[in-house]
Amino acid sequence: MRRLLHAFRPRHLALGLLAACAWTLAQAAPTPAFVTVKDARLVRHGAPYYIAGTNLWYGAWLGAPSAVGDRARLLKELDRLKSLGINNLRVLAVAEQTVMKSAVSPATTSKPGVYDENLLRGLDFLMAELGKRDMTAVIYLNNYWQWSGGMTQYLNWFTGVPAHDPNVSREYERYMNETAGFYTNEAAQREYRRVIAHVVKRVNTVTNKPYRDDPAILSWQLANEPRPGGAKSSAKQKAVYVKWIADSAAYIRSLDPNHLVSTGSEGLAGSARDEKLFFDAHRTPAVDYLTYHLWPRNWGWFDARRPAETWDGMMEKSLHYLNVHVDYAKALGKPIVLEEFGLDRDGASFDPKSPTTVRDRFYKEVFGLVQRRAEAGDPVMGWNFWAWNGAGRAANADYWWKPGNDLMGDPPQEEQGMYGVFDSDASTLAVIADHARRLQALSKKPVTP
User: Fold this and answer.
1) Helix (H) or strand (E) holding 246
2) Angle 275-282/307-332 helices, nearest 10 degrees?
3) Pair 109, 95: CB distance under 8 Å
4) Region for residue 98 given its phi and psi (left: phi exceeds 0; alpha: psi -120 to 50; beta: otherwise)
5) Radius of gyration of the chain from its Cα atoms, rounded to whole angstroms
6) End-to-end Cα separation, the chain, in angstroms
7) Between β-strands 109-111 and 421-422, what pairing exists: parallel, antiparallel or unpaired?
8) 0.85 cut: is pTM over it?
9) Do 345 and 297 form a contact (C-beta atoms < 8 A)?
10) Residue 403 buriedness (CB in 10 A; 0-12 / 13-18 / 19+)
11) What would the mean pLDDT of 204-231 be, rounded to a whole number?
């Protein structure tokens, strides 16, 4: 998507202060091994838990015992990430089978109620290995975008309307408005909840531990980048969206009182540029912390083929976007995590051998701002860069993924190598490791009981 966000000003900070008080669960308190929230901080083992993470949406696929899996590669990827100081992965739990070419295959569900047990066992294996490494995961349970089937595939199942692939139509505004119909389709919502229950209530086949009792899970997430609809979402669409978030988050909490719940929101970019909507969507006590994403090139702020001409404007907008969301978190009295951000390789290349000079500079700026705000005592709890390509490599000259090719952080809706970080990107890895070390140093200060 290419859309230019207007400058954002926190007009509703005072309103958010009303929601700053902590929400105490009626259920028994979780053990200290679980990540919890205290005084607008993520906390684990009595200390602040700062996230130095990445996105590895395909972790369950690599972990699968079937032909699609590559457990040897997964173990190497996890060890490499651990060596860089990465302590958290954001991963996809479920993909829906679809005819859309820009979606991953195989999928976890081939039709409502039918699951690929191999992929669920892949998630089991991934979670077991994360636990061994004292790493955690944010697990998202749906997707607004088509690259994993997602909400548009739910609508296809229950309305018969063909799933809309915006990679083909190029009509992203229409796609967003149509996909928002997921929230009001009763059959789709029933199936979504059945899927949630199937995953959340699962017992890990590797550890024999119920997921709800696994401290390696940091949070359950409603979806990847949910939104009310398009850029001009109506008041009705916004109200439906807010209710869906509150109801879905409460449902997850009813199944699992031990883990945190988050939305997966992009922030203002996923809130129809409506500051009040972002507040309203995250005010519910069933949502424990806030999320936001930063995509300068997608939003028309940066051109990798004209970096000198577009850098300054891009950074001004980006830093403002980052800062204002931390201010929102302060107003709401909740932690916030920058769980996606990325930029092209030099010259918009997809080749792993191409330089990453501009990306490295961008990462330093983003990491630096998060670090400064965290050191100042603000409730920003870290970052997950998008995404980890690791040892994966594109098999096709056009860099587009096809079934059977290496899976990477760049999903099937875009060229492989667009945003993902390869294991050979030495300069980028050095930047990541340095800032992971700095951020996690802040975790050494205990939280006062």
Assistant:
1) helix 235-255
2) 50
3) yes
4) beta
5) 20
6) 45
7) unpaired
8) yes
9) no
10) exposed
11) 98
Six-digit token string for 169: 């139509």
DSSP H stretches of helix in 100-232: 117-132, 150-159, 166-169, 172-179, 186-200
Strand, coil or helix: what is 356? coil
State CA 284 to chain mean position distance: 20
What does the alpha-carbon distance between residue 97 and residue 105 come to, in Å, rounded to a whole number? 7
- The values of phi and psi at residue 109, to 5°, are -120, 125
Give the list of residues 6+ apart from residue 121 with CB closer than 8 angstroms, or none: 63, 64, 65, 205, 206
pLDDT band at 445 (very low <50, low <70, confident <90, very high): confident
Collect all residues with Cβ–Cβ distance below 8 Å to 83 and sequence separation of at least 6: 433
Which residue segments constitute the domains of the chain, with CATH numbers given? 13-444 (3.20.20.80)
3-class SS of residue 430:
helix
Quote the tokens at residue 45. Answer: 């083992």
Rounded CA-CA distance 178/183 in Å is 10
**H or E element at residue 236:** helix 235-255
Q: What is the mean pLDDT of residues 323-328?
A: 99
**Which percentage of the chain shows pLDDT scores above 90?**
90
CA distance 192 to 106: 19
Cis peptide bond prior to 335, omega within 30° of 0: no
Give the contacts of 148 (CB within 8 A, at least 6 positions apart): 57, 92, 94, 95, 96, 103, 104, 107, 224, 411
Q: Is 8 in contact with 403 (CB distance < 8 Å)?
A: no
Nearest by Cα to 421 from 369, 384, 367, 382: 384
